[in-house]
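Researcher: Predict the fold of Ciliogenesis-associated TTC17-interacting protein.
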Amino acid sequence: MFDDVLICYSNNNKPVGSYECRVRDDEPDVQGLFVRTSIRSLLGEIHNTTKLEAYLTLSLETISQIKVETILMNGDVMEKKCSIHLIENMYEINSSESVNGIIKSSVKKQLPKLGSFGLITESSDLIFQRLLAKFPPMVPIEVIGLDLDCNLTTVSYINLGERNVFVGDNEIPVLGIQRTVHSQRSLPLSWQTYFMEDGHMVLRIQVGSPITIKVNTIPERFRKERYLPRPVIPNVVLNWEDDLELYSRFLDRKDEIKAQYLLYLRDHPEIYDMISDFIKSLLLRKPDEVVKYASEYFKSFSARALPGKIFPMKIV
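Model: Structure tokens for Ciliogenesis-associated TTC17-interacting protein follow.
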């Protein structure tokens, strides 16, 4: 169905790892969806690897999910593993933590399927958020999910609205979704994820984390199958300059647009001040790329601009 490949960046905007997400609906012998994610990062002397594989139904019900997180630090290998399997009408959950291959803790539990109706696991969340980005909720919504210790908890989703982000030298519109896991045993954890219109993830930030996940190139948009052939529209050449009626319409429309522009400038005298300030700034700074500088300058007046102090404006 889709593949997302992003880069992990540190606070000083240096690449420190990678993020990959793959969802398929054409796996052999699988009636549903196959989800696989992988996150690798190296921050200082801490090497972190997280892998997740899951099988879902088309209604996003989790059939099985296995998540393994490995941390290599100071020569020690710490591993945290959690597996979820749907067996008949029960979810069997096994979680364990080990250090250098020695199991330090292990927990097994069962959750009835009826008691966890509508359960959104970490794997089904990857698709659920893309549906929310495609059909943004007007109000915050809450679902039943699992916290980091695989306990039932409440997970909330908030529509962050539309923003513009830079990918390389291009600025693209995205829509943000904030996911918060409200654990009963620890502080809430929040992620802010931004998606393109077609569902590609371009930016993800975990609140409080020193790592930001973002793309470095604009993903290729999903191609929709065409069930009808593209209509053939003949190219009609209009010699409008030689046609008195068309030329008269052109002049009338030209005067109409010009009058609208002049009327707008008369009703908004602050535009002259904005242009004057921009020209002064342009003469003072003398940028090499005037168009790019103008885009950055006037972006501060846009309500859709992404705050630079919270989310990086440019991806290099």
